Amino acid sequence: MGSEQKEHENAPEARFPVVAASALSAAQKPVHDHIAQVSEFVFGAEPPFEWTDKEGGLIGPYPVLLYTPSTGTGFFDHAIKLGTDTRLPIRVKEFAILAVGGHFDAAYENYAHTRLAKLIGLRDDQVADALAGREAQDSAPGEVAAFRLALAMVGGKGPVGESVWKGVRESFSREQSAALVFLISSYAYVAMALNAAGAPAPASVMPE
Fold it and tell me: Is-above-0.85 flag for pTM?
């Protein structure tokens, strides 16, 4: 757990460098263009977090997808579909995502979803608690249930305990519960990919 896991902090170059638009291969270009178009549609022309660099190159989890163009579009579309699914309240989703990002200490995921969480009304202390693995004060029962499920899924071994699942069952329908399970799983996937890539939050981000 020492130097190998901290190696990315002093790495001389990115493990999966940002690919400039002018350097995209024939296989990468349609993936890049699709991610850029969908991201702009979902997050708007002035998104609450940076997903490109100043030259328009994709950052965060996106560069990794460009190095596997045959599967990159598929996973991106899967993640976007889960993130924009309306079956779950947005606050429920953000509490679950913050729990996942906090558990993995995934810098870019935590940067982006801290901003999204505050945009939808979570307080600074609620975001800080969720990232630290603590149940946030004044959370609704469904938000607590989602948060507990996320921590159980990413931090435990074997089946999720019945006490945790009881909270899920009391707060959500089976359809909503399934959507929540896949949302948590998807963001764990993203967090692990970000950490393997050593992907930081944007350099322009300053402490708030």
Answer: yes
